[in-house]
Amino acid sequence: MGFLARDAKLLAAVFLLACAWAVAAQATSNASVPSAATLANCPKKCGNLNVEYPFGIGAGCFRDGDFELICNNSTDEPKLFLNDGITEVNFDIDTSNGGSLFVSLSQLIPLRSGIDVYNMSWKPPGRSFGWQNMELYFSGCNFDAYWLYDDLHPRALLCTVNCPEGIRETDIDTWNCNGTGCCSSGKMKGGEAYSFNVQFVRHNHTLEDVAEMQSPNRSSLWDRIQVGSGTKAIDLSWAITDQISCAAALENKTNYACLSGHSTCTDDYTNFPSYLCVCEGGYFGNPYVLGGCSSDRGYNPAPRKANCSRTCGNISIPFPFGLEEECSARTEFQLDCTDVSSSTLRPHNYVTTSVSNINVGEGIIVVKDDSDNTVSFGPLYSGTMFTQEMQWVVANLSCKDAALDITTYACVSANSTCLGWHTTDFLGSYLYIGYRCKCTHGFQGNPYTTDGCQDVDECETTPGICNGLCHNTKGGYYCTPCPEKTQYDTTQMKCTQSKRQKSLLLGVLIGLGVGFGILLVALCSTFAVYRWRRDVKKKLRRKYFRENQGLLLEQLISTDENAKDKTKIFSLEDLEKATNNFDETRILGRGGHGMVYKGILSDQRVVAIKISKVIEQSEINQFINEVAILSQISHRNIVKLFGCCLETKVPLLVYDFVPNGSLYDILHSGSESTFCLSWDDCLRIAAEAAGALYYLHSAASVSVFHRDVKSSNILLDANYTAKVSDFGASRLVPIDETHIDTLVQGTFGYLDPEYYHTGQLNEKSDVYSFGVVLVELLIRRKPIFSGESGLKHNLSSYFLLELKSRPIEAIVAPQILEEASKEEISSVASLAEMCLKLKGEERPTMKEVEMALHTLRTKRSKYRIVAPENDQEMQPLLYSTAETITGHPLAIPVDRNMDHTKPNMI
């Protein structure tokens, strides 16, 4: 009885299947095959996806209803769906892929209050489809997902989703659905089940769940269940189902699908009895349309785009493969570099497949697929991704046919050859795939690029290939015996000398050794003498360093953090390099007490190096004083001291190079120079110098009296900004004292009379000297000048005396009268007169002097047609009837006791 029941069921199943086939055959027999003209007007793309017949968009563009496609253009990026409007097509529809289609699902199930059970089902949209592999993802809050079978089988739990309090959609990790906010069904195989049903059962709600659902700020996760296939596509297979086999289809060719010449039919039993069409070997295209299979001429032997990238992380991508459009030989060889940092390389439009290596010499591509999908890359590839290594060809042509068209022939290297490639199908039948290229014997490289096959040096790559001498040739090599008096050594794999030759060689080596030994002794002696002389120089330099109070200066620098950062004690070797061993061409100027060299330090700073001819031992402390003072001073209008050198008999000072000379040089150059300072320049330079002196008196960390203020100690840099220099005569002032008693020192014509008589130095002494500089700017005469009678005159006395008997306009230089207003001249003259008071207490402070000059400049700027925003950004400071002179050789700190009638030199 059991056998009878089973047979009855089998007969019923066969009857139902036969009825189904009959219905399908009747339905498809009524379907019309569109003509070539009709297909020409059918859409070939939806967004960036390509569509091929038997699929189509619009009436008359598809084989039957199963193959109808819907292109949704309402979204920003058009989307392509199967005829159910739910199943989205992810990749190009390519009939050469052997009936394989990749799709995705996305459905939203809204939740309603009081209902806890929801069902969702899906089936392929037509008998022509069947799914092979799939993994679903469910997102929402607090439910179980079950797989529903038929009435005879219980449901099976797929996964469970829970939501902690306060969860948001942004908190869900859709790449790793672990049950918090979303879960995964796991990988499912279709088999004979071509549709599926899923049931969702919501959990019993706790008080916390109810509060979360009723919260006005609740997450939308509580309002719906989202079902989708995630980032992994569903493998959907398709076939022609109007006949159960190729034999049946050929008996009645009314609806035979393989329309193209050079096409053939293959039976397909993946889902149910059906068939597929493919192009014959050597042909390429769509077998479902007339003339669709054509000789494969789709290979382009050179990239159409220049400067194509050839790497993805650490993976090399040789031609014919490429990363961008027009960088590969054909679209089937286009790859996508999705992550450079992790070297993630994928075939174009294959999101689950990665490529780890491409071997153009052997025609192998190494791939790995993250899913269980068995995906074909098309007719150019042989093998499945489960084999890891897939073999590929460049075109579905024989070598003979490919060589007939040189414009599409792939083997372009001069030393390459063509190889036909074939394999066998699962029945063991011969199956021709196409051709690929390979470098000929003796060459290696890329046969698909010009000069890609390069000669292999067998002598280098295969040691011992000859029992003698190996000679490489292009594409090969040849051997010759070892030279006379040598023999081949099998251990060293090269020709070596015989024993007799070794003895002779040993004698020669001994002779050479003795000769080299004598030479070595001579060299060592020379080196010893050189080193002795160098040590003598080092000792002498250390002696000078101690005599020049180097230890004292080091102590001063080490105890003062500011000086330590700014002041450097240079070695003599540093300065010799900077001046090319004090080359005469580097001399900037000569003076009564020494000379100045221009130097370039190792850090490319340009400096002025001051060398005195003679210096008394008593002046050493004064020299150290100058270094100590400058090391504590930081002001834009004070010359910068880089450091000093104490390793010579006479110490050296290293200053910033100031290229445009001193104020004295500009004012008193006479007819030798075509330059004149404008009145604006005079006011600015005076204000800058006054600011620097005020800083020394009261703003610096230690109050300093300069004691030798004069125009030759006011230097002008490249922008003609004033720089106060020469602090050898300066003195530091204790905090609780207003003056100090010193030996009188200074320059005649600038010396404060009160200081000269009392020997008490205070800040008003610098004010008096600055007053003389102001008079120089007004009258343009030297501090001690010769009158018309030939008698010597003191400028300050002359100014004060003339001011009593004549108006100021009759005293000042003609240029000043042309440029300055009467009010401005009177203001500066009054300021100079106040600075030249005999009693120091009646003189203004340097702060008051600076403020007065600043006020005068401010008033003057109001009357200009164009007023610069910043005095630092004024137009050229000097005007001239000739070209501008730069790099003035005297623009360096000046000596303290020079003749004021000559340009100051160091």
UniProtKB/TrEMBL annotation:
The keyword rRNA processing does not apply. Gene3D superfamilies: Laminin (2.10.25.10), Phosphorylase Kinase, domain 1 (3.30.200.20), Transferase(Phosphotransferase) domain 1 (1.10.510.10). Its main location: membrane. Residues 1-25 form the signal peptide. One of its GO terms (biological process) is cell surface receptor signaling pathway. Residues 582-857 form the Protein kinase domain. Pfam families: GUB_WAK_bind, Pkinase. ATP binds at residue 610. GO terms for cellular component: plasma membrane. It is a single-pass type I membrane protein. Keywords: ATP-binding, Disulfide bond, Glycoprotein, Kinase, Membrane, Nucleotide-binding, Serine/threonine-protein kinase, Signal, Transferase, Transmembrane, Transmembrane helix. The chain crosses the membrane at residues 504-532. It is found in: Membrane. It comes from the Eukaryota. GO terms for molecular function: ATP binding; calcium ion binding; polysaccharide binding; protein serine/threonine kinase activity. PANTHER family: OS04G0307900 PROTEIN, WALL-ASSOCIATED RECEPTOR KINASE-LIKE 21. This is Protein kinase domain-containing protein. It comes from Digitaria exilis.
